[in-house]
Amino acid sequence: MRTLLAAGILIGGLIALEDQAGALDNGVARTPPMGWNSWNTFGCSINEALIKQMADAIVNSGLRDLGYKYVVVDDCWFDPARDSAGNLRGNPSRFPGGMKALGDYLHANGLKFGIYQVPVDKTCAQYFGSYPGATGSQGHEVQDAKQFAAWGVDYLKYDWCSPNGTIDDQVRTFAKMRDALAATGRPIVYSINPNSIHAKTGPQRNWGDVANLWRTTEDITNKWNTGQTNGYPMGIQNIVDVTVPLASYARPGAFNDPDMMEIGRGGMTDTEMRSHFALWAIMASPLIAGNDLRAMDPATTTILKNPNLIAINQDPLGLQAHQVSNDGTRRVLAKKLGNGDVAVALFNQGGSTTTISTTATAIGLAGDSFTLHDAWTNTVSTSTGTISAAVPSHGTVVYRVSGGTSSTPTPTPTPTPTPSGQPGGCTATYRLVNDWGTGFQSEVTVTNNGPSALNGWTVNMTLAGGQAITSLWNGVNTGTTGMVTVKNTSYNGTIAANGTTTFGFTANGNGSTAPTGVTCTTPTSQGR
Ligand code: GLA
Question: Catalytic residue among 74, 144, 159, 179, which?
Fold first, then answer.
């Protein structure tokens, strides 16, 4: 009876997930998670006492009450051997109280428990031979997910750390743990890294159907610029270059992850560390500190506790700033906020102080009277439209701009049912997600109306004049202007009966006119 019930719950969970394939909507990470991770400072040298000290420091420093809740225990926490039943265990000399007790300690302190694991056979430290064993989750996904849930884990960092596998293998394999976590019934933030010692697949697709957070680059280091485009190790400027173009992927429950922060770890000037925090905040990135919280200097505390930037990062719309302009030196990013304000970052990538300017119109506001609140100095100024500041080399000035009216139109869904080869056919529903005047982001949801799973779909649509697709995910497009055809990718061709999948795209041009003739067809041979 118990088994039957468990199987029922498991199947129910899987069906629920399949129905909404294309969007992992597990209820968590509605805003970017905030917290601390052990790796940047301590690497493999971690133990129970250290993690508890860090938890105490988060509470005593006031960071917890500003939102830093997740304490993530990275690589090297586990016993190098599973038990006789194949279960993972904490390393008994490092974590003598066991992982459940550690989770209880964190929860009792108003914190949340994060842990590290891999989908392959060896964790990254095991792969590099700096820690014994081969305790990855490969073949143990369901068992490990249940174990994590039983320990009270709230956040799983799941790191590919292997040169093997295509991007489609990664999608399928990461999805196994996504489904195993969902089947436990415990809400667990699912944070993946497809890039470590692998082709950098993080920026190649929108991973929001698979995970809540996905790393966009190789590992960060505490340097401004390492000269890497996406290789080991990445500096702040290098990570920003990769992550800014992925802005359209961010939404509540799904965020680009430019890696744990290096603030307070040396290696950068105070201006650079402030810029690092400001850019992570406006990019709607997880704010996961990586420094030793027991020994923070006042400059570090000031940066990590900036309430204006935390509020911009945690805004309920969950949007990542999109790029307004970039001439190589002067980069302007703008993030629309839930109350109608817009946060704007004036980022100086050059070697000397320069004036960076934009306008209220360019960041999506209409009108002629605005208030600018400087996120670092709290200075308030007024403007009729110009937004400008003298910014030091590698610095970022952030203003919260209020006043005027938003020029973004209200999104209007336009369902277009169409006949097709499969009984019941499929329907394509277009939705404008975000429009910033010179560009926009949209989604198309494909619904299988038929009584059985369909295998393969094609959507046609005709874009309005002046619109041109710049990036499309979860689909393969032919054409970027006018009449465009989008077919499924290898991983979202199959849609269960009454299920859906969603592809998305960003385009240049004004998004206020929806495409016409949005139709969905399935292969004619199907269902016959
Ligand atoms: C990879 C990840 C890092 C860290 C280490 C642990 O390099 O990208 O963030 O988790 O593994 O070994």
Answer: 159
